[in-house]
Amino acid sequence: MKLLVSACLMGLCTRFDGESKANSQVLALAGGHSLIPVCPEQLGGLPTPRPASELRGGRVINRLGVDVTAAFVRGAEEACQVYRLCGCEAAVLKLRSPSCGKGLVYDGSFSGTLTAGDGVFAALLKARGVAVYGEDETHLME
After folding, report:
1. What pTM was computed for the model?
2. Residue partners of 40: CB distance under 8 A and separation at least 6
3. Residues near 12 by Cβ (< 8 Å), separated by ≥ 6?
4. What is residue 9's three-state secondary structure?
5. 69-128, pLDDT tens digit by residue?
6. Beta strands at 90-93 and 132-134: parallel, antiparallel or unpaired
7. 134, 93 Cβ separation under 8 angstroms
């Protein structure tokens, strides 16, 4: 199966802080699946590194108070194109991210508080009927 995967989980330095979050369980999926890395935030035109962003009231606001919603939406749409063009069948995404979070995201207070919800990209994929898995659900892909 072809899986679209948050690039940071594959060890690419695409996170807001310029780091990666390589996940050995996600990388192990390469033994039986084709993994296609994507970073919606970069595809939306945001630099790396960049100020941390969180969801607040349906908008994406960075730590400096700048509304970056348009870049997140643009990146989500571009990442959906990658999904379609590569013939992916599901997505494995970084938890709690304002782009890729599934089920829980940071609440916009920059205090580490989580709230129910999905990131911009995860929500768009789900709305299009795509199976979305968090990085902690790799066992469901085997």
Report:
1. 0.96
2. 72, 75, 76, 78, 79, 99, 100, 120, 121
3. 20, 37, 39
4. helix
5. 999 999 999 999 999 999 999 999 999 999 999 999 999 999 999 999 999 999 999 999
6. parallel
7. yes
